[in-house]
Every structure is written in C-alpha cells, then in structure tokens.
Specification:
Oligomer: single chain
Shape: elongated
Order of helices and strands: HEEEEEE
Number of helices: 1
Radius of gyration: 29 Å
Distance between the termini: 85 Å
Largest sheet: 3 strands, antiparallel
Number of strands: 6
Length: 132
C-alpha cells in the first residue's frame, strides 16, 4: 500500500500564510504587552510620587470601650500641608470612629499619637487616606 501525504513537504514552498499571521500576532502581542506594562508602571509612579503627604500606622492600642490610640508616622515635603483620615473598626468590620488629622508642621517627618473616641469597642485602626 502506498502512504498518502496530506501536507506539502516542509521547507519546499516557503512560509505558509498561517505562519506569517502567527508571527505578526506574536509581534503585535509583544508590543501591546510592553505598552501595558509601561502604562501600569507610569500610573504606579505617578501615584506614589504625586502624594505630598504619606503616613502609616506604626501601632494602635485599644484603651477602653470608648477610646483608641493610634501611633502615626507622617512623611511629607517640608512646606506641604494636608490631612490624614483614620478610622476605628469593630469586630464585625463596621466603622465605630473616624478622625481627621491636620498636618501643618514645617518638618518632613512627624511622629504622633492620636486619640480617637469610638461609639463601641474597636478592634482595629485603619489609615483611610492622606492628601494635601
């Protein structure tokens, strides 16, 4: 019996249309992937570099059923003024207290302890936002 060939011999007639299309799709996909990564990097950089006031909660302490202390470390430009908002959360995740801290000192780093009154016992303190 004779073997039946279904495809043309490889390398005999050059590249097929499918191979050319696959190559073009790979190039287009690579260019779009690099552009997407560059865009994500740009957004990340502009978000971090664009903030004049940045803060983090170093630690927090539940003082009583109606009060929470939060130790904040604030970094900012020397002449920048702004505010930071923190909130206290209950065990079920509901907000039981909120406080806005004004940042007007002319130093680059501020280390402060903020007391906040709560409506019920809090279990956590969260930094919501900082801005100018």
């Amino acid at each position: 019996m004779a073997a039946v060939r279904e495809a043309v011999p490889e390398g005999r007639y050059g590249r097929t249309q499918d191979q050319r299309a696959d190559r073009k799709l790979r190039i287009i996909g690579g260019v779009l992937g690099v552009a997407f990564l560059a865009m994500i990097g740009w957004f990340g950089y502009s978000y971090i570099a664009g903030q004049d006031v940045r803060a983090e909660i170093v630690k927090s302490r539940i003082v009583s059923d109606g009060r929470v202390d939060a130790h904040l470390e604030i970094h900012k430009d020397r002449d920048a003024a702004g505010h930071c908002t923190i909130r206290a959360l209950s065990e079920d995740g509901g907000e039981v207290g909120r406080k806005e801290i004004r940042v007007e000192e002319s130093t680059e780093r501020i280390d402060t302890v903020v007391s906040m009154r709560t409506t019920t016992r809090a279990t956590a303190v969260e930094l919501m936002s900082c801005g100018s």
